[in-house]
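Hi, here's the filled form for the chain we discussed.

Project: internal
Contact: R.S.
Residues: 357
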Amino acid sequence: MSALPPGSTIGILGGGQLGRMLAISATQLGYRCIGYAPKGDNVACDVCVDFFENGWTDTEALAAFASQCDVVTWEFENVPLAAARAIPADRIAPDPHALEVAQDRLNEKRFAEDFGASPAAYMRVESEEDFARAIDQVGAPGILKTARDGYDGKGQWRIDSAHDADGIRFPGTPCVYEGMVAFEEEFSVILVRGRDGEIRFWDSTVNTHEGGMLVSSILPAGDLIEGQVDGARAIARQVADALQYVGVLTLEFFATKQGAVFNEMAPRVHNSGHWSIEGAATSQFENHIRAIAGLPLGSTETRFASVDMRNIVGEDALTAHTMLAEDGEPHLHLYGKAEAREGRKMGHVTRVSHTPS
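And the returned structure, exactly as it came back:
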C-alpha cells in the first residue's frame, strides 16, 4: 500500500475517547475521519466528518461505511471480530487476527508464552467444578476473570481464599483463574510498527491502578522497571512481528523481584500512553495514524525529564478547569462525555517538566 495522500478518509471502529484522539491526530495530518459504533455516547463523533451509529451485525451499514474509507482501524479491542472482518482485508489495519488473539485471555496468554512471556499461573474455568479445581491447583489469592469483554477491572473477582469462592457465583461464561502476582510496580510496553516492519518504542511509565482502572502514568519509571524493559520489549517485538502488526500495540507487565510478568495485550492505543501527546516527540495517536496510512513513523523520544499523567474520573471532571490555574503547566484533556458517572474516565491531565521529579 502506498502512503495515503492528504484528503483521504480514515474509518474508526468505535466511538470512545481513543477514537476521538485518533481523529484529532488524523485531522492534523490532513485526513478526514468517519466513525462507526452502535448508538450511544460516541464522543469521537464530535471530531469526525460523518458517523455511522449502527449495530455491529449490520452488514449493509458496515459495507457502506467501508466503501467511504481508504483505510479502517479500531479504537478498542472488543470490536466484534465479525465486524472487523467485514471490512475488506486490504483496507483494515491492524489485521483483525490481533483482535482474535486479544479478545480471549487464555489465547492471549498462550500466544505471548510462545515468545518468552511469563504470565501468572492460570487455568481455564468453564464450570463451578473447574473453579474449585483452579483454586486448588493455582492457589489463592487469585483473580477470576471473564475470558472475554473485561476492561478497567470489570468482569473480575478477587479470591483471597478458597472460602471466599463460596460467596462468588460463577458467571456462567468461560473465565480464566489467575494466581495473584506479588509485584512491586506495573508498567506497559507501547510500540508502533509501520507497514514496512519498522518498530519504535516509547519509554515505559510506572503505572498505578485502583479498582482495575489506571490512575496515573509517570516518568521516569525508576530502576526496577528500567531494568526489565529491554526483556519486555523483546517479547513485544516478537508479538508484533508475528502478527504482522501495523499501528500501536501495548503489552502490560508486572515488575517483580524475579523479573517481568506478562499481564495482558491491548491491540490499540492505550491509556498509559496518553502522556505521549505532550511528553513525546510524536504521540501514540499520531504514530498510529502514520502507520496505518503508510507514512514514515515519527520519533518516540521523550521530550522532558519528568512526565506525570493522571486520569480524571467521574464528577472530578466537573471542576477540572480549575487545574488550568495550577503551577506546572497542566495539559488538560476532557473527552466530552455527557454523563460524569462514578468510575467513568472523563479525561486526563498531563504535567511535564524539564526538571527530574
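Let me know if anything looks off before we file it.
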